[in-house]
TrEMBL record:
<dbReference type="InterPro" id="IPR017938">
    <property type="entry name" value="Riboflavin_synthase-like_b-brl"/>
</dbReference>
<dbReference type="InterPro" id="IPR001433">
    <property type="entry name" value="OxRdtase_FAD/NAD-bd"/>
</dbReference>
<dbReference type="InterPro" id="IPR017927">
    <property type="entry name" value="FAD-bd_FR_type"/>
</dbReference>
<dbReference type="InterPro" id="IPR039261">
    <property type="entry name" value="FNR_nucleotide-bd"/>
</dbReference>
<dbReference type="Pfam" id="PF00175">
    <property type="entry name" value="NAD_binding_1"/>
</dbReference>
<dbReference type="GO" id="GO:0016491">
    <property type="term" value="F:oxidoreductase activity"/>
</dbReference>
<feature type="domain" description="FAD-binding FR-type">
    <location>
        <begin position="2"/>
        <end position="102"/>
    </location>
</feature>
<protein>
    <submittedName>
        <fullName>NAD-binding oxidoreductase</fullName>
    </submittedName>
</protein>
Length: 230
């Protein structure tokens, strides 16, 4: 059984349609500085509700005392977390998983794929890449959402692009929104992108992950050059 510690809700704000950004303060707990790799996740719990896994959406910090999470509404635990008042306590475990092996991408182009709330695991990877941007070749994010208003972190996209990270957004269900951008699944927009020197990092729903994996393999990217946040 994992060891549980108390984090305190210090901020909460809408992130996109159906998504909420939640910040937990872990200062004074043994969890300080334990988030070591982008893509790691923790278990969150509240009394009477089953614990669930959530990716840490903030960048790893050597002495970090605050963790961000992107909550998708529609399930009991996320819905309860979203309703908590500031100052409320949440039970949280130490980070799990090996995260994304960013060191294996140094000297190579980087392809990032995320859909919906899966961007929460890719966001700290982007922050880590930006800290040593010159270490990598081309960096390109393929970011998909169901509707134009379902993209989290829209306020950060320009900063990412300003940091020499190309962002490709696509919407799978534009409806009557008037969306003028790309539509369809993220893997459909690889186009003639050169992937010979690329390392790929992927997070999203299982169908999306399989689709991206198949598309990259068809383009000749070896399986060992494609990474998930297990």
């Amino acid at each position: 059984m994992p060891d549980w510690h108390s984090g305190v809700v210090t901020a909460r704000s809408p992130a996109a349609d159906g998504l909420t950004d939640l910040v937990l303060d872990i200062q004074g707990t043994p969890l300080e500085g334990t988030h070591l790799h982008p893509g790691q996740y923790v278990r969150l719990s509240l009394p009477g509700l089953q614990a669930s896994l959530f990716a840490i959406a903030s960048a790893p910090e050597p002495h970090g005392t605050r963790w961000e999470f992107l909550l998708k509404d529609g399930s009991p635990l996320p819905d309860a977390l979203i309703r908590l008042p500031l100052g409320a306590k949440v039970q949280v475990t130490a980070p799990e998983g090996t995260g994304f092996p960013l060191e294996r991408a140094r000297g190579h182009d980087v392809l990032l794929f995320a859909t919906g709330s899966g961007i929460s695991a890719i966001r700290p990877l982007i922050a880590s890449v930006r800290r040593e941007r010159d270490t990598f070749g081309r960096v390109k994010l393929y970011f998909g959402a169901r509707t134009p208003t379902a993209f989290a972190y829209q306020g950060e996209l320009h900063a990412w692009e300003g940091g020499d990270i190309q962002v490709v957004r696509t919407v799978s269900r534009p409806g009557a929104s008037g969306w003028q951008g790309l539509t369809g699944y993220v893997q459909a927009h690889l186009g003639e992108e050169s992937v010979q020197n690329a390392r790929a990092f992927v997070c999203g729903q299982p169908d999306m992950v399989r689709g991206v994996l198949d598309a990259l393999k068809e383009r000749g990217v070896p399986r060992e050059h494609i990474f998930f946040n297990y």
